[in-house]
Amino acid sequence: SSPLVAIVGATGAVGVEMIRCLEERNFPLSGLRLLASPRSTGRKLKFRDREIEVEPLTEQSFKGVDIALFSASGTVSRQFAPIVVKEGAIVVDNSSAFRMDADTPLVVPEINAGEIARHKGIIANPNCAAIISITPLWPVHQRNPIKRLIVATYQAASGAGAAAMEELRASTEAYLQGREYKNTVLPHPYAFNLFSHNTKIDPVTGYNDEEMKVIEETKKIFGDPDIRVSATCVRVPVLRAHSVAVTFECERPIAAAEVRELMKTAPGVKLVDDWANNYFPMPKDASGQDDILVGRIRQDLSDPSGKSVTLFSAGDQLLKGAALNAVQIAEKLVKVPALA
Ligand code: 2RA
Predict the structure, then answer these.
(1) 328 known ligand binder
(2) pLDDT digits (tens, 9 = 90+) for 49-89
(3) Residue 100: which residues within 8 A CB-CB, separation 6 or more?
(4) pTM (2 decimals)?
(5) How far apart are CA 267 and CA 241, in angstroms?
(6) Nearest to 67 by CA among 36, 28, 40, 41
(7) Whole-angstrom Cα distance, residue 210 to residue 200?
(8) 161 C-alpha vs ligand 1 centroid, how far in Å?
(9) Which helix (H) or strand (E) holds 6?
(10) ipTM for the complex?
(11) Cβ 159 vs Cβ 320: under 8 Å
């Protein structure tokens, strides 16, 4: 029978997109339970032909639930995911709480869906910047192993939640009206500005948490601890799509043309590489799309060996970066028939 699905963090920017993905992808479910912190309950959210009331998240919220999609804080996931598992249900967790846990599969379905079967109750959804950076690279890695990867990210406000998206709008408005704006969500002035990702900097390496997630999660998702990765993660004044500049070095020489051909059939990818018209991946085109847009595919001129290629991608942070990827994992759990 179809599963009873719960969404934890249902009123957040990602939670709302999870509901939308379940609806638009006609996910087969017998019921949908929407859970949030007490301050967000009482609201009714539309799903298919009805309104569902958001209930307060408690330890009793998971009776009869088969799949629970979590998109709240790591603290909430650590507290409630074990309770869900004890109820015999499966958790797809969008927080970073369990991503690096050996018993927890970390899954991008286009890359390592096979990992799902080994779950012990929890499956982790990867960091959005990691998903958008590496999903297009998987077909390359399969043909000519990537030995080194350098990522620079241009990350949207949505990664810091709905409040940060509101902060972008409000600070931009204030800027245009010549008014002072006092930040309440992000650490620095956001309008017409960019800054190092708003996660803490490691005092030894100088890397922020977001960069370490991209580095460590790439290794785990590719199943290749030896791949050498570096990342620079930056928050930019864009609403909901992350962009990334990626340079990778392969084991053997690889032509940009070969990479471009691979992108034409890469799952979850749309090639946008129009040199003549200078038309390449942009957040405005990536927003609201399932696919990650990939372009600017060119030989890396700093590597005379011909083993390195540089490209630029843009993907919707709330969809493929979070909600869509989580729902795609859930689809693998219930093996929905291929979408019509
Ligand atoms: C960000 N990766 O973009 C995070 C989203 N949780 O800030």
Answers:
(1) no
(2) 999 999 999 999 999 999 999 999 999 999 999 999 999 99
(3) 106, 216, 217, 220
(4) 0.97
(5) 19
(6) 28
(7) 9
(8) 8
(9) strand 4-8
(10) 0.91
(11) no
Beta strands (DSSP E) in 120-174 are: 122-124, 146-155
DSSP string over 241-274: EEEEEEEEEESS---HHHHHHHHHH-TTEEE--B
| Residue 296 annotated as binding site | no
The rounded Cα 316 to chain-centroid distance in angstroms is: 8
Burial class (CB in 10 A: 0-12, 13-18, 19+), 197: buried
User: Tokens representing 212?
Assistant: 């370490």
* CB 210 less than 6 A from any atom of ligand 1: yes
Radius of gyration of the chain (CA): 20
Q: Ligand 1 pocket: which of 132, 197, 198, 243 to mutate (most atoms <8 Å of CB)?
A: 197
Strands (E), 37-144: 44-47, 50-53, 55-56, 67-70, 90-93, 122-124
Q: What is the DSSP letter of 207?
A: -
pLDDT tens for 44-60 read 999 999 999 999 999 99
Nearest residue to 237 via CA among 142, 321, 170: 170
Q: How far is the first Cα of the chain from the last one, in angstroms, to the nearest whole number?
A: 20
39 annotated ligand-binding residue:
yes
Q: Which of 86, 88, 89, 75 is nearest to 7 (CA)?
A: 89
Report d(CA 264, CA 105) in Å as an integer: 28
The residues facing 52 across adjacent strands are 45
Q: Give the active site residues.
A: 128, 242
Whole-number Å distance, alpha carbon 118 to ligand 1 midpoint, is 26
Pocket test for ligand 1, best of 208, 216, 317, 320 (most atoms within 8 A of CB): 317
